[in-house]
Amino acid sequence: MDTDHAADHEMPKRVEETAVALLLRSPHLEVGQIMDLMDIGDREFRDMASRNGDIARRLEERRLGTLR
Question: In the prediction, which pLDDT does 1 show?
């Protein structure tokens, strides 16, 4: 029986970060809309961006206007 609750908590976090990274690829959605959709606060979103390179890259592409 698996009793590693920390690992159970990690999986949803990774899935949530992957979803955010994918949603950030859409030029039709604003960052605020994505945060509302995913029910993520400012602090949590900033933490995700510092932890997850894909999210950071998508945010930089949006900032530079190079999102494709």
Answer: 47
